[in-house]
Amino acid sequence: MRIQATTEAGGNRTLDVMTAIRGRIAGRALAPGDRLPSIRRFAASMGVSPSTVVEAYDRLAAEGLIRPQRGSGFYVSNAATPPLKLAEAETPKARAVDPFWVSRQSLDADEAVLKPGCGWLPADWMPDEALRRAVRSLARGGGDLLTYYGSTRGSPALRRLLLGRLGEDGIEAGPGHLMLTSTGTQALDLVCRFLLRPGDTVLVDDPCYFNFQALLKAHQARIVGVPYSVHGPDIAAFEAVLAAERPRLYITNSAIHNPTGATLAPQVAHRLLNAAAENDTIIVEDDIFADFEPEPSTRLAALDGLSRVIRIGSFSKTLSASARCGYIAARPDWIEGLVDLQIATNFGGPSPVSSEILAHMLAGGGYRKHMEELRRRLVRARRETADRLHRLGIEPVLLPRGGFNLWCRLPEGMDSTPVAQAAVAEGVVLAPGNVFSVSQGAAGFMRFNVAHMIEPRVYSVLEAAMKRAS
Amino acid sequence: MRIQATTEAGGNRTLDVMTAIRGRIAGRALAPGDRLPSIRRFAASMGVSPSTVVEAYDRLAAEGLIRPQRGSGFYVSNAATPPLKLAEAETPKARAVDPFWVSRQSLDADEAVLKPGCGWLPADWMPDEALRRAVRSLARGGGDLLTYYGSTRGSPALRRLLLGRLGEDGIEAGPGHLMLTSTGTQALDLVCRFLLRPGDTVLVDDPCYFNFQALLKAHQARIVGVPYSVHGPDIAAFEAVLAAERPRLYITNSAIHNPTGATLAPQVAHRLLNAAAENDTIIVEDDIFADFEPEPSTRLAALDGLSRVIRIGSFSKTLSASARCGYIAARPDWIEGLVDLQIATNFGGPSPVSSEILAHMLAGGGYRKHMEELRRRLVRARRETADRLHRLGIEPVLLPRGGFNLWCRLPEGMDSTPVAQAAVAEGVVLAPGNVFSVSQGAAGFMRFNVAHMIEPRVYSVLEAAMKRAS
C-alpha cells in the first residue's frame, strides 16, 4: 500500500480526493461508464500533487468503484451504482424496526408465533369451507381456465361483479374504468410507476399503513405526512401541505383507516377533494377495509366520480390472502396505460385461478352473510380486547365502527419500539407506532389486531415487555 | 385570443418563449412545483418584450402546463409530468405494431382467433388432467393454504424442488440463493428495479423476446442490441458492444433462444462470461424454455455459479399460465434485497394457491413424462410446419433442437409487418419480425408457433396476407 510513504497531511489530501470523487459518483455528476477527470487536471483543480491523485484513483480502483482502462484513463465502474436496497441490516435479527420489520416478522413467522401486530385475520376467521368449494368447482370447470394466461384486464366475471359493486357505491363506471391486478399492493405499485418519477413528492397520512412507506421508498419518492385525526386528515394541515408541497399523489384509505380505524367525515372529504383539485394532486383511495364497515361512509371516488381519484382494492382481508387479486378503478385513459404497464411488467393480468375462485365466492351470495358474521365477531372482539388492554393501562384512541385494528396509546412516557423488540424475543409480533409514522411521532402508540388478541399469552408477554421497556 | 394583434415576427417570438419553457420542463430543468423565471427576467434573457413573455405564459397556463399563483408568479403544474405511457395510440385498432401489439392481440383475442404469433402452447397441449388433480388436492389440503399470504420467499415445497433442479444443472445453491415470485416476468421486473436506474444501458439480443423491450421501456432504460446468430450472440460484436457501451445488464435466454430457437455454444458462453466480467456487466439468464431441450446445453448460471449471473424462470410455458409462479436464483445478498422489494411492491411472495399446484405437479413424477411427450409432439410439429411454410416460400433460419418457435425468413423483399396487419383483419395473429428487433432490422422475418400452425386456415390467411402485402 502506498499510503505508508505519505505524511499525515498527504494522507488527508488523498482522502479528500477520494471523497470528492465519491461525492460526484453518489450525486451522479459522474455516472457509471463516465471517464474520470485526468490526473493532471484534477490535481490542478484540487490544488494537490498529481501523485496524490494517482494514489486516490488507485485506492478507489482497488475498492472497485472505478476501473482503469489502459491508455485511456479511469472510468466509473458499473458496480458504482448500488442496487436498490430498501433495508440496511444484514441479518433478520439485527434489523431496525422499520416499515419492513412487521411484514418480515409476520409473514415468515412460525405457526406458534402470535401475531397481534399483523394486518390480516387468522385462518379460522376466513371462509375456508366456501373457498374449498370454490376450488373444487375450479377443478371441474371447463375450458382453459387452468392453463391460460387470461385477458389483460382480468376475469370478465369478476370485473362484472366489481362494476356492480362500484355502482352500489354510487360510482358510474363501465368496463373501460376497471382492471384487475395480481394483488392490491401491486395495484398501488402500478399506479405509482405510471404517475411518479424519482424525487416526486407523495403525501400520506400520519400514521398510515407501513407498507405504503416501503413501496414509496422503492419508488424513490419524497414522502410527506399529514396528521390524521378521528374524522380524516387534519383538513387545515392538509390544505396547507398541499399548497406548500404540491404533492403529485395523496394515498389514503377511506371507510376504515389503517391503522387508526377512523372514518372520513363528509365535510373533510369535500374540502380534501377541493384542495386536491386546486393543487392538481391525484388521490389514491385504498378500499381494502371497506367491506368491514357496518354501513357505507363517504367515499372519495363516489364524490369525485373517478376523475381525480383512483380507487384500488382487493379481497385479501375478507376472503383470501392466498388466492390474491386486486383491482384499479380509474379514468379510462389511465386504465389503458396501466394495462400496458401490467403487460410489460407481469405479462397478462392476475392469475385466472385466483380471480375465478373469488368470482365464485362473490357470485354465490355467501359473501354478504360471511361479512355480516365477521362484523359481528369483530364488534365483540374489539370491545373485549379494549377491556383487557385497559387493565394494562393501554387505551384506544377511538373505538372504530368496523375492522380489526385498535390504534392505542401506551402509558405515558412508554416507547412502543422497545416493547415490540422485547415481545418478539418471546414469540409475539407487535406493531409499534413508529413503523406507521413518517414523522416518527407515534412512539407512544401501538396497533393491535383484535382477532389475534384472544390468547391470554399475548397479554402476559405484552405486560412483561412493557415492564422490561420501562 | 391575443395573438391577433401581434405581427408575424411577434407571433414567432411568443412561440419561441413557449418552446423554451417547454424544453426546460421536458428536460426537467424545471420540475413540477418549480417557479418559472419572472416575466421581466425572462424577457431580458430572451431579448423579447415583457408582453411577449406574458402572452407565452398565459398560453402555457391555458394548456395546463403551468399555473399562475396570485402575487407569486407562475409555477410548473403537476400535470406537466406526463404519466408513463408505454404506447401511443388511442384505440386498439390504430395501434402501431410495437412490442405490445402481439401481446394485446394474443392475450385478449376471441377463442375463434388463431394465434400462431403467440408465445404459449394451446390448452390441449397442457397437462389439464394433472392440473385438475392438483387443484382437487388443494381443495382437500390442510392448514391455511387457501387463506394465508405465504412466506416472503414462497412455498418451501416448491423451493426445495427447484433447488434440486438447480443442483442437477450443476449449480450449487442453498435456500439463500432462491426466491419465488408471482410470475417469470415479475421476476425479471424485480431484478430490473433492483439494479437499474432510468437511463442505464441494457443489452439484449437482436432479435429478442418482445416483452423484454416493453419491460425495459417501463424502466426507462437505454436499450442496445447485439446480433444473435445460430450459436448465441455474435461474440465479436458482443465483446465490442460491452467495451463501448458498458451495459449494466445483459438479458438473454440460454437453452432455447426466443425467438430464434438457437442454442448457446459452449465457446460463445465462455467468452461471453469473460467479457461480462471484464466490463462488470450483470447477466440475466431467462430459463423459461429450458425444459424443452432434448438434453441440457451449456448454461451461463452453471459456468458462472450465480456470482454474476442471475437465473430467472417459471413454468407458464410447460405447466400452466394460469397458476403462475416465477423464481429468481442469485447471490444471497441480492436475494435479500429482492425479497424486500417484493414485500414493498407486492406484499408477500407468490400466490400459495399457484405455488402449491405447481409443487404438486412437479413432485408427482408426471412432469418428466409430460415433457417427453411434449418434446415428441413438437419435433413432429416443427417438421410439418417447416414443410408447409416451405410451400409458401418461407424458410426457417435454423431448425431448433426444441421448443415451439420457428424463426423464419419471408420471400425476398417482403415486409412482415403489413403481412401481420392484413392477417389480423382476418382473425389470425402473427408475430412480425420487427417487434423482436431493437434495430428494426428483422422486417423480412416472422416467428411462428408450430403448435398453433395445425389449422389449414392459418396457411390460407397467411398466403392471402402475403399476396396483399406484396
Automatic annotation (TrEMBL), chains A, B:
Q: What is one Pfam family matched by this protein?
A: Aminotran_1_2
Gene3D superfamilies attached to this UniProt entry: Aspartate Aminotransferase, domain 1, Type I PLP-dependent aspartate aminotransferase-like (Major domain), Winged helix-like DNA-binding domain superfamily/Winged helix DNA-binding domain
**What positions does the domain HTH gntR-type occupy?**
11-79
Is Phosphoprotein there in the keyword field?
no
- Is Transferase found in the keyword set? yes
Check the record and name the SMART domains matching this protein.
HTH_GNTR
GO molecular function annotation: DNA binding; DNA-binding transcription factor activity; pyridoxal phosphate binding; transaminase activity
Q: Which UniProt keywords apply?
A: Aminotransferase, DNA-binding, Pyridoxal phosphate, Transcription, Transcription regulation, Transferase
Q: Which PANTHER family match?
A: HTH-TYPE TRANSCRIPTIONAL REGULATORY PROTEIN GABR (PTHR46577), TRANSCRIPTIONAL REGULATORY PROTEIN (PTHR46577:SF2)
- Family (UniProt): In the C-terminal section; belongs to the class-I pyridoxal-phosphate-dependent aminotransferase family.
What is the name attached to this protein's record?
Answer: Aminotransferase class I/II-fold pyridoxal phosphate-dependent enzyme
Q: Which organism is it from?
A: Shinella zoogloeoides (Crabtreella saccharophila)
